[in-house]
Amino acid sequence: MAALTPEFTLYDLASTQGTSRPPSPRSPSPHTTPQHPTTFIMDSPAIAAFIETTHPAPEAVLTSDLGAQIEEKARKAVGPAFYVSLVPREWRILSPRSREYFHRMREAALGHPLEHLLAREDVAWDAFGDGARAAGALMRTHKEKGPFVLGEKPSFTDFVVAGALQNARVVEVGVWER
Known about the structure:
The protein is built from eight helices and two strands. By secondary structure, it is mainly alpha-helical. It has a domain at 65-177: Glutathione S-transferase Yfyf (Class Pi), Chain A, domain 2, CATH 1.20.1050. It has a two-stranded antiparallel ribbon. A hairpin with a 2-residue loop joins strand 1 (32-33) and strand 2. The model is unreliable at 6-25 and 27-33 (pLDDT under 50).
């Protein structure tokens, strides 16, 4: 995979304007949508709901019982392995300014260098199997009806799964292949 050249600064968005308007209690940085530069949205479900209201076609199902089950099982099975494998490597796709911020903030939150997470990588991947298979089986529930989790139409869950896999591929293709 070709090396990425960052074109913008991530994670330090608040300082680019000299002001900060927190979009959610969990984030100190504002996030805007291109068509609505004064609309600040954080967290994937809220972003998806906003996109559905501003761009209703094609329709995407935002909630479903099956989707919720898949997301819960996938987070429990894949989340720990992705966390210890990707977080210590994410800095490589960031701009120099963002790299410094990313390291400083993550290491302060963790209380140790990011690279220490890699020591838990094999254990996390060893625990990956059964839960990932269960999530995969649920994802195939409607495979005869179409390529998406719910069959013919994409759902929020399809975007969550595809987004997580794409993130892994971009950050470290070896994690994605695993």
